[in-house]
TrEMBL record:
NCBIfam families, sorted: Gln_ase
Organism of derivation: Chlorogloeopsis fritschii PCC 6912
Family to which this protein belongs: Belongs to the glutaminase family.
UniProt enzyme class: hydrolase
Gene that this polypeptide is encoded by: glsA
PANTHER family the record matches: GLUTAMINASE (PTHR12544)
Keyword terms of this UniProt record: Acetylation, Hydrolase
One of the record's GO molecular function terms: glutaminase activity
Single biological process term from Gene Ontology: L-glutamine catabolic process
EC number of this enzyme: 3.5.1.2
Subunit structure: Homotetramer.
Name this polypeptide is given: Glutaminase
SUPFAM superfamilies: beta-lactamase/transpeptidase-like (SSF56601)
Length: 312
């Protein structure tokens, strides 16, 4: 296995950051109006190892909303709350090949295809246990705290912005309500979903969260168990097959490690038993993945031979 500590990893990250900081391709997401305010040039790369070492370069302290990367962790919380068998009756594990916001359910089962697309994520969020909206939100924030190692907050401006413009997600919730895949009150589930997407993180936080998944669910710095280790394989499997939306297949082929991207420009990637990788750069390609993020991960994977099926 890879001896990450013996590699000149920091200087490699510094060089990668230098190499891609002039890359201007892509566009910042603006369908959530508040997201368009981000500095499009922001850029950081962080790696956290399962030994608790953190390597970082660029704007690693800059806060941004986690967006779809939250889906990974909320799926873990739902598994913790209900167990694998029940969750599988409500949300599938099949990649769609469609965009993240596709309004599509499995024809036969009426389940959303998987928890990494919006429909599946909203269904997953609707299952989070708690008495009333505030207890559910607090349980979710506490779950994020375990992965990150410090308290987290919801960006109210982004939350409100998405809440007032998120008609497509609202439509999906109604469709799922129609098929009995989620229960009333759906406005509460949608609010919680918009809140989870608006949790603020920086690139360093994301690397530690990814490293926690790489480390059997134990935060490598605080040593806290963030999710039951038995669900790590569930989480990483859906990340591997569905985490990059309709780019998931090509990502699995080229980069070869479980990953998740978000519309605010973050990507996390998990190298099991070794490290978590995070990149933040808000300019996105046509599928909604960070342009620099994809390039950086491709190069990291190639250079260090991180592809899970690498044999040479
Ligand atoms: N909150 C966003 C949405 O539901 C998250 C999408 C994403 O990051 N891909 O549209």
């Amino acid at each position: 296995s890879l001896q990450i500590a013996s590699l000149p990893l920091q200087s490699f990250l510094d060089d990668l950051h230098d190499k891609y900081k002039l890359e201007q391709e892509g566009a910042v997401a603006d369908y959530i109006p508040e997201l368009a305010k981000v500095n499009p040039d922001a850029f950081s790369i962080c790696i956290a190892t399962v030994n608790g070492e953190v390597y970082k370069v660029g704007d690693y302290n800059q806060l941004f909303t986690i967006q779809s990367i939250s889906k990974v962790f909320v799926y873990g919380l739902a598994l913790d709350d209900h167990g694998r068998d029940y969750i599988l009756t409500r949300v599938g594990v099949e990649p769609t090949g469609d965009a993240f916001n596709a309004i599509v359910l499995d024809e036969q089962s009426k389940r959303p295809y998987n928890p990494m697309v919006n429909a599946g994520a909203i269904a997953t969020t609707s299952l989070i246990k708690g008495f009333g909206a505030s207890e559910r939100l607090n349980r979710m924030l506490d779950m994020f705290r375990r992965y990150i190692g410090h308290d987290v907050f919801v960006d109210i401006a982004v939350f409100t912005s998405e809440r007032t413009t998120g008609h497509r997600n609202r439509a999906m919730a109604h469709l799922m309500l129609n098929f009995g895949m989620i229960d009333e009150p759906i406005d509460e589930a949608l609010d919680l979903y918009f809140q989870q997407c608006a949790v603020m993180v920086n690139c360093q936080d994301l690397a530690v969260m990814a490293a926690t998944l790489a480390n059997k669910g134990v935060n490598p710095i605080s040593k806290e168990q963030a999710v039951d280790s038995r669900y790590i394989k569930d989480i990483l499997s859906v990340m591997y097959t569905c985490g990059m939306y309709n780019f998931a297949g090509e990502w699995a082929y080229k980069v070869g490690i479980p990953a998740k991207s978000g519309i605010s420009g973050g990507i996390i990637a998990v190298v099991p038993n070794q490290m978590g990788i995070a990149v933040f750069s808000p300019r996105l390609d046509s599928r909604g993945n960070s342009v620099r993020g994809v390039k950086v991960c491709e190069e990291l994977s190639q250079h260090f031979g991180l592809h899970l099926f690498e044999c040479s």
